[in-house]
């Protein structure tokens, strides 16, 4: 899934553990306990979680819920390290919100409890896309209840398209169509300096995956047990992105920082992002829409999604499951989706008028779900992400020839998988 960011004010309010939200009305249980919830996300997630906990406390007025929100500003690899350190220090939370990038790591270490029986007792989960539960399962067990998800789309500034006299993207557009569109949307000043880029070549592991999937390939093999970097199509995809930067000059070189603010300011016409960007697009009054990523072989894009799990160390597992029931309820899903979080896992929430109101093509998010593949998320994800991005950055910056970068990245990935296999023995 992607990296989310809180506003500076909200960040200062929510990063400290212990911010609790309680409400009392219509008690249905006299159980008394303290639960700790580690959620993730931005303002939209915080608001929806707060209201979900208030509804939970109507049924469990004597259960205090302490919640911390992690913005995932350093990526999911660092989040894995953080959570594992909490377990090792015997200071784990009861409920964790996390993402598919972490599932295999946590599941293989049995850090969370299987939820199959709990799922069977909750027929309301049938409102979720079945594929989300399938992708949240491991060796026949489901450890996480899906929540919001994101598939990477092309987000584009409609006003810049209109100003350039360029037609909006149409379904079925190709890599070549995209390239020509990006050229037309790149604007230079009298000295030849770019003042408006047509596209931002991604700088994040999650964001870049559609350029491989739409070319019928991936950086890892199908079951995420080995590198696939030597596939010529991987090189072809990297070369295409490299040429957007250095030949067509329609994109800046990917740097450490994401360029969302430049996109909102009208300095970049197209970026690869998920639905989470809608929250800030609304605040910026941006005239934008989304399009399916362009196709080389097909129009497959990448999906990442979040889920809630119950820690195996929790002393209140049934209460923790009851809290998850509210965190994944239709009310919570609808509110988060309309505020601009991820695409709701519940189809009913994704079809609500509030969700479909913006952007104009919001229906495409759910319509493209059957044409998605999960972000590569092996049990050694922390290493895979860092290895790939290190070589990807060097290749995109022209600091390393693509053939050399691909070969060296393959060798390091294979070494990482070899270490992973040794740990499992």
Tell me what the structure shows.
Residues 1-27 have low confidence and may be disordered. The protein has 425 residues and is an alpha+beta fold. It starts with 7 loop residues before the first helix and ends with a helix. The longest helix is centred in the last third of the chain and has 23 residues, at 402-424. The chain is built from 20 helices and 14 strands. Strands 1, 2, 3, 4, 7, 13 and 14 form a 7-stranded mixed beta sheet that branches. A 3-stranded antiparallel beta sheet has the order 11-8-12. A two-stranded antiparallel sheet has the order 5-6. Helix 2 links the parallel strand 2 and strand 3.
Percent in strands: 15-25%
- Give the proportion of residues in helices: 40-55%
Number of strands: 14
| Biggest β-sheet strands, sense, barrel | 7 strands, mixed
Mean pLDDT: 91
Radius of gyration: 22 Å
* Overall SS class: alpha+beta
From the N-terminal CA to the C-terminal CA, the straight-line distance is 29 Å
Number of helices: 20
């Amino acid at each position: 899934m992607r990296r989310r960011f809180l506003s500076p004010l909200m960040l200062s309010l929510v990063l400290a553990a212990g911010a609790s939200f309680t409400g009392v009305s219509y008690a249905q249980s006299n159980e008394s306990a303290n639960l700790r919830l580690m959620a993730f996300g931005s303002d939209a997630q915080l608001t929806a979680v707060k209201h979900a906990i208030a509804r939970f406390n109507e049924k469990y007025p004597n259960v205090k819920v302490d919640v911390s929100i992690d913005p995932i500003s350093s990526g999911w690899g660092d989040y894995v390290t953080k959570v594992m350190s909490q377990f090792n220090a015997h200071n784990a939370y009861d409920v964790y919100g996390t993402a598919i990038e972490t599932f295999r790591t946590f599941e293989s270490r049995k850090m969370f409890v299987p939820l199959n029986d709990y799922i069977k007792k909750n027929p309301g989960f049938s409102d979720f896309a079945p594929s989300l539960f399938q992708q949240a399962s491991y060796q026949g067990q489901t450890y996480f209840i899906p929540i919001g998800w994101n598939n990477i789309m092309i987000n584009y500034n409609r006003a810049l398209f209109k100003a350039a006299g360029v037609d909006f993207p149409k379904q079925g557009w190709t890599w070549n169509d995209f390239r020509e569109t990006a050229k037309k949307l790149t604007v230079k000043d009298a000295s030849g300096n770019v003042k408006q880029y047509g596209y931002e070549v991604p700088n994040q592991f999650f964001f870049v995956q559609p350029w491989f999937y739409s070319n019928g390939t991936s950086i890892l093999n199908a079951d995420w047990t080995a590198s696939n970097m030597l596939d010529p199509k991987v090189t072809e995809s990297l070369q295409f992105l490299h040429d957007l930067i250095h030949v067509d000059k329609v994109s800046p070189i990917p740097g450490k920082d994401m360029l969302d603010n430049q996109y909102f300011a009208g300095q970049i016409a197209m970026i690869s992002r998920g639905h989470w960007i809608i929250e800030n697009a609304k605040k910026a009054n941006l005239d934008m829409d989304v399009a399916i990523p362009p196709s080389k072989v097909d129009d497959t894009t990448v999906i990442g999604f979040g889920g809630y799990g119950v820690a195996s160390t929790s002393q209140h597992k049934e209460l923790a499951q009851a809290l998850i029931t509210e965190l994944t309820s239709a009310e919570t899903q609808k509110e988060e989706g309309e505020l601009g979080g991820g695409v709701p896992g519940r189809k009913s929430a994704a079809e609500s008028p509030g969700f479909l109101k913006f952007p104009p093509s919001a229906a495409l998010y759910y319509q493209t779900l059957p044409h998605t593949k999960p972000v590569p998320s092996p049990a050694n994800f922390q290493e895979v992400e860092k290895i790939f991005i290190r070589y990807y950055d060097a290749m995109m910056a022209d600091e390393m020839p693509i053939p050399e970068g691909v070969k060296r990245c393959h060798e390091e990935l294979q070494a990482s998988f070899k270490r992973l296999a040794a740990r499992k023995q």
